[in-house]
Amino acid sequence: MTGRDRALIFEKFSLQGKIALVTGSSRGLGAGIAMALAEAGASVAIHGSSKAPESTRQNLAARGGNHFAVVGDVSDAAVCVRLIDEVVQHFGSIDILVNNAGTIRRAPAAEHSDEDWQTVIDTNLSSVFRLTRNAGKHMLNQGSGKVINIASMLTFQGGVFVPSYAAAKGGVGQLTKAFANEWAARGINVNAIAPGYMATDNTEALRREPERSRQIMERIPAGRWGCPEDLAGAVIFLASSASDYVHGHVLAVDGGWLSR
User: Fold this and answer.
1) 259 exposed, middle or buried (CB, 10 Å; 0-12, 13-18, 19+)?
2) How far is CA 66 from CA 85, 109, 220, in A?
3) pTM score of the predicted model
4) Active-site residue 165, yes or no?
5) Interatomic CA distance for residues 255 and 243, integer angstroms
6) CATH code of the domain occupying 3-254
């Protein structure tokens, strides 16, 4: 393989000149995803639910990344319209949407409140539909785009004490396929990443329970919890032209969890 051949391969993974929005990028997986996209060359709109994600903005600025902050609760349908509009107005277009914003409520199914159910469904599932639909209108007009939804191990499994979260993440998997079916022939790739057990705020309660944490660790062939950096390669692949023939796929990044 010549140097030029290698350069051509690397170019497929470049996001130079692309515009991305990462929801829920104040910390954790979203912040890691935003950094990965910026390092690959994209201009990145970062998002916080109630305030600008200052830590992520500082990290991007320190590395010279072109960025823009948007704020709003994605469980609100009007916010899902506004966020896309603000990104397009600021950057001129949107090429990549990462639907990462989410929440979780833990309670036994018999005690899971209607309020908790609705909060999780609105934040984790309805926002994915609305943001994808709204960004998709711009992507369809330009004939290209990449949508990456953040799914979960509970896209495949039922979990315990998280019925609303399991329902929402199962729905994310199906929405990914539904959008892909309609848009694949029109130059838009819609895929998802299903992270395994990651050391983030969402799993803090699990990691504090010695018995449950031990059970989880014993099932992960890689022998450790994941971290935001573990998603970087998958995100860049699905956001770049290297994945142009990948549609409707849910890519597990789980340390081998689903293999057991």
Assistant:
1) exposed
2) 18, 44, 37
3) 0.95
4) yes
5) 22
6) 3.40.50.720
8 Å CB contact between 191 and 243: yes
**pLDDT tens over the chain, length 260 residues:** 566 666 688 899 999 999 999 999 999 999 999 999 999 999 999 999 999 999 999 999 999 989 999 999 999 999 999 999 999 999 999 999 999 999 999 999 999 999 999 999 999 999 999 999 999 999 999 999 999 999 999 999 999 999 999 999 999 999 999 999 999 999 999 999 999 999 888 788 888 888 888 899 999 999 999 999 999 999 999 999 999 999 999 999 999 999 99
Specify the length of the chain in residues: 260
CA distance 211 to 49: 33
The token pair at 29 is 């997986």
| Residue 45 contacts residue 87 (beta carbons within 8 Å) | yes
d(CA 236, CA 38): 10
Phi, psi of 47 (to 5 degrees): -135, 140
Catalytic residue among 74, 100, 149, 165: 165
Q: Where are the domains of the chain?
A: 3-254
H-helix segments, the chain: 3-12, 28-39, 54-62, 77-91, 114-121, 127-142, 163-183, 204-208, 210-219, 232-239
